[in-house]
Specification:
Blueprint: H1 2-17, E1 24-29, E2 34-37, E3 43-48, E4 54-62, E5 68-73, E6 83-89, E7 92-96, E8 98-102, E9 107-109, E10 113-118
Parallel strand pairs: 3-10
Antiparallel strand pairs: 1-4, 2-3, 4-6, 5-8, 7-10, 8-9
Keywords: Signal
Signal peptide: 1-22
Length: 121
């Protein structure tokens, strides 16, 4: 039991040692009749006066330093690649994280990015 605990600890430590958080998950919300704010950061939002009940947005990876094998988007199974297009409802937020698997066999979990849309009502 002691040996298996030590082995599990060593494997876990090795996994997290490879996660250097070099890539950043950021977002952008599209605005029809207003302005988008903080695009390209992990906390973006938009406000317009179109009175629509939703808008589109995208989560994407920034500052990636190694070739990517695949990306697992944690809150949206329909996303693929290095971007994830979403619909964000007015006065609600969408959050996302991603698990990046690199071609060299390492991986990392990204920061959480959050987007918000307000429609002026």
């Amino acid at each position: 039991m002691k040996n298996s605990t030590i082995l599990a600890l060593a494997l876990t430590t090795g996994f997290f040692a490879n996660s250097a958080f070099s890539a950043e998950l950021v977002c952008r919300v599209n605005s029809l009749n207003g302005q988008s704010h903080n695009s390209g950061t992990s906390n973006c939002w938009a406000m317009d006066f179109s009175f629509r009940n939703s808008s589109s947005g995208v989560f994407y990876l920034k500052d990636v330093t190694k070739p990517i094998e695949r990306v697992q988007w944690n809150n949206n199974r329909s996303c693929s690649g290095t971007q994830c297009a979403v619909t964000v409802r007015s006065f609600q937020y969408k959050s996302m994280t991603a698990h990046i698997f690199y071609k060299d066999g390492t991986s990392e979990l990204t920061n959480r990015a959050v987007m918000l849309y307000e429609n002026g009502m």
